[in-house]
Amino acid sequence: QVQLEESGGGLVQAGGSLSLSCAASGRTFSSYNMGWFRQAPGKEREFVAAISWSGISTLYADSVKGRFTISRDKGRNAVYLQMNSAKPEDTAVYYCAADATWRSDSFYSTYGMNYWGKGTLVTVSS
Question: Which helix (H) or strand (E) segment is 19 a member of?
Answer without folding.
Answer: strand 18-25
